[in-house]
Amino acid sequence: MRYRLIALLADGSVQSGQSLGQRLGISRAAVWKHIQALQALGLDVHAVRGRGYRLADPFEPLQSSRVLAGLDASVRERLQALEILPQVDSTSDHLKRDSAPLPEGHLRVCLAEWQSAGRGRRGRRWVSPYGTNLYLSVATKINESGLAAGGLSLVSAIAVAQVLRARGLDGVGVKWPNDIYYQGRKLAGILLDLAGESGGPYRVVIGVGINLKVPDSAARAIDQPWADLSQAGLHLSRSQLAADVINSLAEALRRCDAHGLPDFINSWNELDLVTGRAVELHNEREPMITGIARGIDPRGGLLIEHQGKTRSYHAGEVSLRLS
Hints:
Elements: H1 2-9, H2 17-24, H3 28-38, E1 45-48, E2 52-55, H4 64-69, H5 73-78, E3 79-85, H6 91-97, E4 107-112, E5 134-142, H7 144-148, H8 152-166, E6 172-175, E7 179-182, E8 185-195, E9 202-210, H9 216-219, H10 238-259, H11 265-271, E10 278-282, E11 289-296, E12 302-306, E13 309-313, E14 319-322
Parallel strand pairs: 3-4
Antiparallel strand pairs: 1-2, 4-5, 5-9, 6-7, 7-8, 8-9, 10-11, 10-14, 11-12, 12-13
Helix pairs in contact: 2-3, 8-10
């Protein structure tokens, strides 16, 4: 019922409680109770005295037809499934639970309007209010040579950042290994989940979260400096942006599987926000390390100069902060 109510309110127009009740087949009192429940999804619903209710920010519901129409023909041929869910714990966890066979080179994609347990790196929560941002995961298989070449995390970030650049976002960059920043604040995040036996192929799930317009109620729950596309004056179709990201990830994964990280070095250098800057490294095995970032190694590890020595660190081992 609440998702039918959201659909009626999506365009931002004022709807009376009586009209909503008639269309939903419930009482005005029941409408009011459902309106209160929407707050838990991160939706800002305003009560307009004497007139009814409206969303503070109208939104475009995700539409599978529009996503499919935006996919390249070669990607549609490889697409095994496209799911758009009103709610899920996590799009990545949903795909990880999917036991359907996934032929090598094919893709399964899940998008959601709302995540109740969106995940960020190192166990952090990804705040996922309803219908305002993009929550997307892609599952595929990658062979042993593609994985051994390293840099899959970096390659995924490059693919997403290039979409945002192409859509007109100047000043976007990547903080190693895969956090996407705009004007010093986190705009998008990527999380990789890998499964498989030694020798491959490996099943990888790439989760992507992009802030398009973060409501005030959701912003209060974010525990780090953040940015969204609306702050840059960009108001993009969510369905089209989803298609662009899927296209870009699919092509990047194909290239990574065939050629590895060396095929992306120039793109990484253009987007890298870290090299030459003072950084802090945190992991569980040794005290905090401070040093100067000196680029990446051939497998995507971050090179840190510390006390005259340069050492390589890999994603999953450390938490990186720019000083």
